[in-house]
Design a protein that fits this description.
By secondary structure, the chain is mostly helical. It has one helix spanning 2-134. The relative contact order is 0.03. Residues 99-135 are annotated as: Disordered.
């Protein structure tokens, strides 16, 4: 009887160990499945991140092209502005010279008018003297 009880206890212990081992195996399978799902999620997320990086790199490339174009346009505009400024200064200088010449010419005209008036007065005075002398 004692041997049968010992055997029965042994069987029960082994059954308990088998059940515990089965639970650990089931838990291990659950853990593996959980990690497999996590790997799939991370793989998907990584692929999406790669796609986003490619999209962003395309945007960066396009923006760099736009920046280059804007820089070129700005340089061209600056060159045009410098050309226009140079032309403006030249024309302004020419205008100042023309005004100077006009002032000189006006001064000469005024001097000639004054001389003409003085000459006219002298001529009138001579005519008046001649008329008076004749009388």
């Amino acid at each position: 009887v004692k041997g049968a009880n010992d055997s029965l206890l042994k069987v029960r212990e082994l059954e308990a160990e088998v059940e515990a081992e089965q639970r650990r195996g089931a838990d291990a399978v659950k853990g593996v499945r959980k990690y497999e799902r996590r790997v799939k999620e991370l793989t998907y997320q990584t692929e999406e991140d790669k796609k986003n990086v490619i999209r962003l790199q395309d945007l960066v490339d396009k923006l760099q092209l736009k920046v280059k174009a804007y820089k070129r346009q700005a340089e061209e505009a600056e060159e045009q502005a410098n050309t226009h400024l140079s032309r403006y200064r030249k024309v302004q200088h020419e205008l100042e010279e023309a005004q100077e010449r006009a002032d000189i010419a006006e001064s000469q005209v005024n001097k000639l008018r004054a001389k003409s008036r003085d000459a006219g007065k002298v001529t009138k005075a001579h005519k008046t003297e001649k008329v008076l002398d004749q009388k």
